[in-house]
Amino acid sequence: MNPPHLVFTLARIAWLALLALTIGMLVAGVPAVYHQILAVCAGGTCYDWQLSPEAARRLEEGGIPVSAYATYFVVFDVLLSLTYCGVAALIFARASGEQVSLLTAFALVLFGSIGESATVQAAGLAYPALTWLVDHLSSLGRIAMLVLFYIFPDGRFVPGWLRWVALLLAATLVIEPLLAGSLLDVSTWPRPLSLIYTAGLFGGVVLAQAYRYMRVSSPIQR
Questions:
Q1: Which of 22, 113, 114, 162 has the fewest CB atoms within 10 Å, measured from its CB?
Q2: Average pLDDT, the chain
Q3: Residues 144 and 162 placed together within one structural domain of the fold
Q4: Which tens digits make up the pLDDT trace of 22-46?
């Protein structure tokens, strides 16, 4: 077996293992996120998916129990995560022998089904053994999605120097969770600086795709 085939085979095995792990974390996270939502956050450290006392009161006044809201939230979040997994599985099944397709399958699971899933994030908070894993898989998902937008659809950085921009941005995404609370943690930066960083992170991929579309892409790619 030549090295490229071996690399793709190992990558396929890794993706299947990642998919199984993601499903497992979703299952583990369902009771965790449900009870976290029921525990209305009155102060201290609150999670994004938790309700404030005021929000919970307004729901109750509108005839919606917090338990019903929690059920709706969990079902919607799990279905959204499974949708990412399903699209990734379809791409994997049809084109896992292509570099960009395989990266897309990884990015969809890492970014959509783990990084953006409150259920998986709740599992990481509820089970200490999963905390490190969820945090680093989420960071890896952001990096995979970033690189995907820079190289889609042909696997090349266009123009070539964008690889260094992507590398710099990827480095900041790796460093941020490792040095939480330090000066290298973007969340600690002054608001104007964090906005500039965010604009560079998202604006760069938009400009890269616009340049590719107008100057490089073939009619079929467009």
A1: 162
A2: 87
A3: no
A4: 999 999 999 999 999 998 887 777 8
Rounded to a whole number of angstroms, the CA Rg of the chain reads 20
d(CA 60, CA 173): 40
Contact 157, 151 (CB under 8 A): yes
More confident residue, 17 or 128: 17
CA atoms within 13 A on the CB side of 156: 7
Instruction: Report the percentage of the chain scoring pLDDT > 70.
Output: 94
> Tokens in use for 42?
């009155």
pLDDT digits (tens, 9 = 90+) for 70-115: 999 999 999 999 999 999 999 999 988 889 999 999 999 999 999 9
Which residue type is seen at 123?
Answer: A
**How far does CA 144 lie from the centroid of its chain?**
9
Q: Name the burial class of residue 186, with classes exposed (0-12), middle (13-18) and buried (19+) by CB atoms within 10 angstroms of its CB.
A: middle
Indicate yes or no: pTM above 0.90.
Answer: no
Nearest to 30 by CA among 66, 68, 75, 64: 75
Cα–Cα distance between 128 and 28 in angstroms, integer? 12
Range of the domain at 142: 3-155
> CATH no. for residue 104?
1.20.140
What b/e string do you get for 101-119 counting C-beta neighbours within 10 Å, with b at 16 or more?
A: bbbbbbbbbbbbbbbbbbb
Same domain, residue pair 18 and 35: yes
User: Hey, is 209 helix, strand or coil?
Assistant: helix
| pLDDT given for residue 2 in this prediction | 45
